[in-house]
Design brief:
By secondary structure, this protein is mainly α. It has helices at 15-25, 30-45, 64-73, 84-95, 107-112, 129-146, 152-162, 173-179, 193-204; strands at residues 52-54, 79-81, 99-100, 115-118, 121-124, 149-150, 184-185, 209-210. A three-stranded parallel sheet has the order 1-2-7. A three-stranded antiparallel sheet has the order 3-5-4. Strands 6-8 form a two-stranded parallel sheet.
Length: 212
């Protein structure tokens, strides 16, 4: 059996050294982080490895969005499999800010102020549904004028291209997905605010189609 060893951290310990020590720490999550780091290293060194990143939308409402963006920007992955909410949060945070909160905040009081709580992230009404509705419909209309039928990942690329001149576009995942032609697949493309806007537009424009 392999013994559990204590972490030994100094002011000069690097992240690489810390993760290496995690592999010796045993128990709970530390050893899993070290194992994951080795898997990622092997994936990156294997030129024949097709790398798919799968993640939920909620982390895109946090600073973790920047890590995903950089993976796409630096071509460290080949495709993303996620939910519609990823597109929602990615676009909403380009136009408006989300805010830091607490899991213990009173939802009734927040509701009276027009603020939604996503875990410990605060999302005012004007920073999500309202800003998406105002900005997505003109983009959809423009894209529809040029093409009637879209696959989901190509439509996301088209959105990435459409926002390229927006302030903060380079902070988004979808901009870099378009730029580097990394597909983003959504098994449930209508299950979110972005998808709801597509559906709303389709109500009056029946020749606008998603090819699933």
């Amino acid at each position: 059996m392999k013994a559990v060893n204590d972490l030994n951290i100094t002011e000069n310990t690097t992240i690489k050294e810390l993760i290496s020590q995690f592999s010796e720490a045993g128990g709970f999550s530390a050893s899993k982080v070290a194992k994951a780091a080795k898997i990622i290293k092997n994936m990156q060194s294997d030129k024949d490895c097709f790398k798919i990143l799968s993640h939920p939308a909620c982390i895109v409402s946090t600073g973790t969005r920047g890590l995903i963006r950089d993976l796409v920007k630096n071509k460290k992955i080949d495709a993303i499999m996620t939910t519609c909410g990823t597109i929602d949060h990615d676009l909403a945070r380009m136009w408006k800010d989300y805010y830091q909160g607490s899991f213990m905040m009173d939802d009734k009081k927040l509701h009276k102020k027009g603020i939604n709580r996503l875990g410990n992230v605060l999302v005012p009404n004007e920073c999500y549904g309202e800003v998406l509705e105002d900005n997505l419909q003109p983009i959809i209309k423009k894209l529809h004028a040029g093409r009637k039928e879209w696959s989901v990942h190509e439509l996301i690329w088209a959105f990435g291209e459409a926002i390229q001149n927006e302030k903060g576009a380079e902070n988004t995942i979808i901009y870099w997905a378009w730029k580097n032609k990394i597909p983003i697949y959504l098994p449930g493309p209508l299950d979110g605010a972005w998808g709801a806007q597509l559906w709303n537009y389709w109500q009056m424009n029946k020749d606008f189609k998603l090819n699933l």
